[in-house]
Design a protein that fits this description.
529 residues; single chain; six-stranded mixed sheet; alpha/beta; 22 strands; seven-stranded parallel sheet; 24% strand; globular
Amino acid sequence: MFKILVADPISESGMTVFQNHNGHFQVNAQSKLSLDDLKKAVADVDAIIVRSETKITAEVLAAGKKVKIVGRAGVGVDNIDVTAASRQGVIVVNVPGGNTISAAEHTVAMLLALSRNIPQANASLKAGEWKRSQFTGTELQGKVLGLVGLGRIGREVAKRCQSFGMPVLGYDPYASEEYAKNFNIKLSTLEEIYAQADYITVHVPMNDSTRHMFNAKTLAKLKPGVRLINCARGGIIDEAALAEAIKTGHVKGAAIDVFEEEPPKKDNPLFALSNVIVTPHLGASTEEAQVKVAQELAETLRDYFLTGAVRNAVNLPALDAEQFKELEPYLLLCEKLGQFVTQFFEGPIKELKIEYTGDISLKNTTPLTLATLKGFLTPILGSEVNVVNAPHLAKERDLKWTETKTNLTTDYTSLITLKVSSAAGKFSVAGTILGKNNPRIVAIDSQSVDVVPEGTMVIYTNVDKPGVIGYVGTILGKNQINIAGMQVGRKSKSGEAITVVNVDADVPETVLKQIKEFPGITQVKNVKL
């Protein structure tokens, strides 16, 4: 009999799945446990189920020596130490698509409420007032919707808004025109959306590249009278800047479900504005979503224990402890190489080739390919991506990938090379493991380098001539950005060179623009691994 600890409350639909297999599962539901009580509770269980409240740390996992799988009834796994779980051989699973419809419907509900002043009119009438003229609304038909992010939720929002007669523009730097056309969305640039959209909804993950992507500068570019809706992640919109833009009348109104700080402070500047609608992170808070999430997670655990099948794994499944130990450094390397390609190479990538050369070609490379796809897609889609759904998500985005193996002799015992192509051209990056577990990027576009794939890097290409390195160092120094290391690669004297500068802080776009102003520098990118 398999023992399961349900450490956070889940819908009865999930509990029923286990009850239907009474002879196989013993379920113990205990919530709001202290750390000591949690450690005691996991000591003799095979699986743990949590939502967002209970934290499964390395300490908790160490206490659960029999735990084989941890399930999160939701999308994110921030409250689970996935690295510690992997090292302990514990599979971590989540439910990435369970709240898609709920989140999309909440976005559309916010859009409608914003258009027709429904919350304000409701409050006024209940206060004994009858002020119809104050709540004149706006029709959606013919208004242009701008979607920032074309993942699952964005696509569902588009489908619903198109039924209102709204033309839909969509921005996604990694989506192709064919992909967007499949959903009757016109693929557009951010600048086009800023200029044309009457409504803008946000559907991107929260990361360094999307933090405050709607700030004072970008808000000023929006079409006068635009309305903004954010049911994705707090921090994508600068709340103070949005409040100012609404006060000036440039932004007509906003509907916000997520905040930089949750719960938000009472003096949040948005709360004082009558044309701002707010809800307390309710995107996934429907009875149906909770039922779906609980049932799907319970079925995932049931199938794992009864058949060995694994769905929606966040870390690497189907490897025994010895295989995992052998491949672990290569898994990290592949994920980093994938992240590097996505951040450095511009344009929607049509094809990804993964080449395994040397000893690594004799191993089971399927987990490595999955790790590569996960790394490649994570900067685009965020925590939605895992090694199980990465191939499906790649196919959705019209990405073709192949892997080849050759045992040819090279300068390295094992070498992994990623080659990509798009309408903009071709690009490659190669990496290896030095010693026992030291990943390195050893070639960028066939130019030899020796780069540790971690931290923040400024990478630029240029014509190899005197003065470039000094100029870049001066620009970074003037902006109080410390250089931690530097690697230069070149094909020939006075030919094309590539330089990787490791820095200790984020590099603003304005600094990258200053660097690119130097004659001979052809490309500058900020990459975070």
